[in-house]
């Protein structure tokens, strides 16, 4: 790229180095350039002009874009939210115009740009969702069709679910250990007043405590008692199953379709000496049999798929005794955005969670009503806690990049995970997505959540 100062060139080099994936912005005054300045040639200049013009009316945030020795300022300055973007390849503009929001993620993963604060940048874009949506609508029909066809091919049938889970969870247990807390809960924690007051000695202690609080909250809502037969759909790495067995005296059957999770969960059950109370299965939920007092499922329902939701609830209902109850923790989509979400494919489903589909709270309740005789007992929003959880994960991940590389993962995956964690954190901060705990009971269920939680 022409007209790059030596100082800026060094910054671009450092942003791609083994030391950091964060950009280094040179100090000093930058010329504020016209919208079509700073690109290598006329065609690149036109792409730059078109993209910057599209976001020239940005509000509710401030973005400084650095390229070619110049600074382009977008949005309100000063502002509560701000971010600096360092463009290191002018193909950035063309690929975002042609690829929309998925193109922005792809160019980030490919190292065409870096950002001082990805979460703030994505929050600004969520606040300007109309401009982002118009960008996505301009994406070529061929690219859109390809993404939709790929997503449609990843339906969560029994075989499809297995393939989809392998792509995400079988990255390796050692990878997830790097940024999760010691329980290895890969779901939102609940940060209590002690965490809010900063009374933990380390951030890891706060994250660990939040995971324990979340698990206890679910156990208390279900009024778990010694001897209860509990089914967990979605084992994770076994933390919840061991917790229910060791702290509440339950007999737990837990199932996963991830080979990596199954292997480590079995090991952790043995270490906890809970083999007499915990049975770990490697089965799809559709093949389960038996009768249980309670069902727990923590952030697994997002992998069910919209078209399979009624079947999921029907299966759960058939596995519960007449006085049984179930508690789901779920990531949900805002109902205002859901129809468009179902018609489209976003970065998460394209690159991170193949086959994933966020429900709405309403769609969960509707599926339970349509397919079962269960009634809704309780729903609690815990969205702010997920933003905090993700911030902890991201900080831990970024502090352990050398360990990630030592496991054999390349810069593209590192940048993808940084984008993914920031993308999710921003979504929860802006309440584009939500996290809830919701409970359903069979006709004979006598659980009163207000009573069962009174000692919490």
Automatic annotation (TrEMBL):
UniProt-listed Enzyme Commission number(s): 2.1.1.79
Active-site residues, as the UniProt record annotates them: 424
A molecular function GO annotation: cyclopropane-fatty-acyl-phospholipid synthase activity
Pfam families according to UniProt: CMAS
Keywords carried by this UniProt record: Lipid metabolism, Methyltransferase, S-adenosyl-L-methionine, Transferase
GO BP: any one term: lipid biosynthetic process
Chain positions covered by the region annotation Disordered: 1-20
Enzyme class, UniProt record, top EC level: transferase
Chain segments annotated as coiled-coil in the UniProt record: none
Membrane recorded as keyword: no
Keyword field contains Lipid metabolism: yes
Family membership: Belongs to the CFA/CMAS family.
Name of the protein: Cyclopropane-fatty-acyl-phospholipid synthase
